[in-house]
Amino acid sequence: MKMIGLSVMLMLLAGCGQQRTGTTIDPQDAAKVARGQAVYAASCAACHGARLEGQPDWRRRKPDGRMPAPPHDDSGHTWHHPDEILFGITREGLVPGKYGPPGYVSDMPAFGGALGDADIAAVLSYIQSRWSPEVRRAREEMLRNRGR
Ligand code: HEC
Question: Could you tell me the distance, in angstroms and rounded to a whole number, from the CA of residue 10 to the centre of ligand 1?
Fold first, then answer.
């Protein structure tokens, strides 16, 4: 029962703000996750780590004032964000005043030119497929409490 409720929630969450089903984030979709794993290795691993572990000392600002790439696994804060925000950050980068504070400067590239929406959905499906059941449950509850 609980599992069914969770997957329905995830489907509802993933559906927000995305019209085409090909661009839905779905960590249960094995084909999407496999495609996303390849996209991750090619486009994300260099900064976010081959095992999603992030850059060393990722909580500490670098000498240039910018933040290192955080982990995408349970230990990071990627899972704190709803799907549409993760999608937007990947497509547009950490746009100041939208996904970051006004004037914010970030090393996170915008992938909208390099990756289609289906690839972005696939890579985020892969990342989410690596989260533990505990983190997925905590995320579902957090997003529900925010009224999403
Ligand atoms: C050139 C290095 C680099 C590459 C390549 C890169 N990122 Fe990032 N990413 C960053 C950095 C640095 C941050 C932290 C930005 C900040 O806080 O200023 C970040 C942050 C993010 C965040 C926000 C995480 C959070 O919890 O706020 C997401 C989502 C993200 N990246 C997804 C991706 C995805 C998906 C890919 C591959 C398609 C990718 N990134 C490739 C450097 C990179």
Answer: 22
CB of 77 shorter than 6 A to ligand 1: yes
The pTM for the full model equals 0.88
CB of 35 within 6 A of ligand 1: the answer is no
Interval 111-123: pLDDT, tens: 999 999 999 999 9
What is the domain extent for residue 9? Answer: 2-145
The pLDDT value recorded for residue 80 is 97
Q: Which long-range contacts (CB under 8 A, 24 or more apart) does 109-116 make?
A: 111/43, 114/43, 115/39, 115/43, 115/90, 115/91
The domain spanning residue 31 has which CATH number? 1.10.760
